[in-house]
Amino acid sequence: MPPTIHIDPARTIAPVDPRIYSGFTEHMGRCIYGGIYDPGNQHGLVDENGYRTDVLDALRELRVPVVRYPGGNFVSSYRWQDGIGPKDQRPRRPELAWLTEESNQFGTDEFIHWCRLLNAEPFICLNMGTGTLEDALGWLEYCNSSANTHYANLRRANGHPEPYNVKYWALGNEMWGPWQVGQLSAEDYTKKAFQWAKALRLLDPSIKLVSCGETGFSDWDRVTLKTLAPVVDFHSLHLYTVSQNNHDINVMGPAAAEKGIEITKSLIELAKIEAGVERDVGVCFDEWNVWDPVRAPGEKGAEEHYDLSDAIAVASWLNVFIRKADIVKIACIAQSVNVISPIITSPRGLFKQTTYYPLKLFANLMQGMALDIHISTSSSSTSKGEEGDNDDDEDTNFYTGPTVPPFIAHLAAHTPPSARPTRWIDASAVLAFPSNSHNNNNNNNNNNTKEIRIAIVNRHKSLSFDVPILFGPEAKVNEEQVTVHEVWSPELGDRNGWEGEKVGVVERRGVKWEGVWGCKAHSFQVLVFELA
Ligand code: AHR
Ligand code: AHR
């Protein structure tokens, strides 16, 4: 039986939080310097303050709502005070995360200015490595205080009379990792973060705090959430999926994130029950992407050159966030420019990687109410998946090959066995209200227009699938007017680069709907159905 998609607009999950399309800019490789900030640029690509205008334009197309900064591992030995004030007086420092030097020519004020240009909210990660609580309070005061106090006055003296009102603050980055300056045990981190949260809220009760999590399926998450869920607004997860030059592993990796999110949701609920608190605590998946640190090492700037297989993996990642809209409230692709990024710059311009296009389609189209899509396949599939290597079944709907060994990279996704089976066809759906959105490019919309938008990935390298889509009884779709946005290319290894683009988006309007969608091998598409 072919995979069949069932969609009933009455079966809603939760509104898609636009913050799942957020970004991340770390002082790492060419993300800041030469990426978003390039003051010496000789090719007319920067504004009067040195911000790359082509990069801003490319990120605006992705509608990035929130940007995390300044790390990442970088933050754990960062002195924020070095990055403010007259540029010629800012100290150069050794940089311990990526073993470089930090010029401090770009710091907090430049970051906030850049976020305003992008129309994105800043999200600051605090240094819990070498940094003290006093440093953290000083940073918060510098950014948010309107009082007549030292750091607020220092901000004014630096030319910024109004508080920045930075809403999102993270309590450290990957404090569990052996690579982290100031690594802590889960117990030690929990005690410290609890006290930091209390003090930071005393200074500014309006802020949203993010606890440092791991993958969601790690004991660190269990231990820290038990105490911290009652005092934070979000719990952060990080995961990178890795290909090991194996397409199947590359595209199935996001199943690990989905499992981690499910476990985290339960851990949050348990901690709230135990503490008797009602506050909303969401998942902030603030580092996710495809990254093979062996292929693109962090110390060398982690400039991945993505191919079509990676774009399909990114689409699968984004399907996870839509399906988990009830709990995932923020997600930041790591990172926004040059470093494991959908955009690569040179002094003369930029190119958009393959992974840019699924991200762009999701950010622009997959907004609205997430729907509880169901994919049915043959009845034999459940037992097959649980047993994993039962290959006497000819069912071609499921992947049953090897998962990623956990040792390949420090954050490489290791798909937990319970996250399997994973289907070749992966999908998510939203009920969208185009007339309420600034993404309304359909001229004859009236105020009642609704659309069902379905993001479908066929992850199989060589099989195409004819996928029936069955709509619930309430959904009357306009069968004359389906719009299709497709990301596809003949070869899985196809890439974009300075020489040109092999992978982009092909859009077709007015496609006649006949009940079944033919999904090409290794393709991604968003189908847009108008509802009567
Ligand atoms: O995004 C690259 C790095 O990956 C970040 O600095 C760190 O948090 C993670 O290990
Ligand atoms: O934990 C379950 C709930 O799911 C959270 O309170 C809320 O943020 C999400 O919708």
TrEMBL record:
Pathway where it operates: Glycan metabolism; L-arabinan degradation
Record Gene3D superfamilies: Glycosidases, Golgi alpha-mannosidase II
EC number annotated for this UniProt entry: 3.2.1.55
Annotated spans, Disordered: 377-396
Keyword hit for Hydrolase: yes
Pfam family, one: Alpha-L-AF_C
Catalyzed reactions: Hydrolysis of terminal non-reducing alpha-L-arabinofuranoside residues in alpha-L-arabinosides
GO molecular function: alpha-L-arabinofuranosidase activity
Keyword terms: Carbohydrate metabolism, Glycosidase, Hydrolase
GO BP annotations, alphabetical order: L-arabinose metabolic process; polysaccharide catabolic process
Residue intervals of the Alpha-L-arabinofuranosidase C-terminal domain: 286-523
Family, as annotated: Belongs to the glycosyl hydrolase 51 family.
PANTHER family given in the database record: ALPHA-L-ARABINOFURANOSIDASE C, ALPHA-L-ARABINOFURANOSIDASE C-RELATED
Function comment: Alpha-L-arabinofuranosidase involved in the degradation of arabinoxylan, a major component of plant hemicellulose. Acts only on small linear 1,5-alpha-linked L-arabinofuranosyl oligosaccharides.
Protein name stated in the entry: non-reducing end alpha-L-arabinofuranosidase
